[in-house]
Amino acid sequence: MTTRAGRLAMARLRAAARGHPEWWALALAAVAWIAMVQHGLGRGGCCRAAFSATGELVAWTGMVVAMMVPTLTGGLRDMALRSYRLRRLRALGLYLAGYLSCWVLAGLPAVALLAWLGAGASKAAGVAFGAAAIWALVPARASMQSLCHRRIALRPVGVAADVDSVRQGIVSGAPCVAVCWPLMLACSLTAHALVVMTGCAILTVVEKRMFRPQALPIAAGAAGLASWSMLIAG
What we know:
By secondary structure, the protein is mostly helical. The protein has one domain. The protein has ten helices and no strands. The protein starts with a helix and ends with a helix.
């Protein structure tokens, strides 16, 4: 009976995995959250260690994986449904690589800004959140947000299919960077403070789940984070 129950449980798990092919990306995001929590606690959640460009870029990437990958469930599922089952995992991995490459490139100017601001980075976070609040009200941002869901044709097999998977990730990632970069920069300026990261993650997920994007709630949330950042920066 125990063996049979175990087999039934495994069969259900496999069926659930087939129904939700994006599960491994969400697991990756969960691991990134654990790493960022440890990162934040290691710094006391409020201060920045000695500057390291490589370390900051790694932290930026971890933050992006933790906060942005959970918003990609629709895109990942769409990629899975448009790919043959035998190459589905490969297609999703390449899509995610293309998406994250946009964010890694966007992290380079953020790291440069951190190096320039030095100890004053935490005080600049409030200004960055204020800029994010204003950006949320600009009509061009809404136009860029609609492009996050643009689909391209995917060739079914071979190297061409791999290239298209990466291209789809870039097509999704580039406008996403334009929409969310100010918020992510502000999080980075706070040395990835956990309260701020959690607030930003909630904002991004809520915005992705809106049937019709609304600027005012996002602007209000960013303004609230600006106030909090100024408060903890002293």
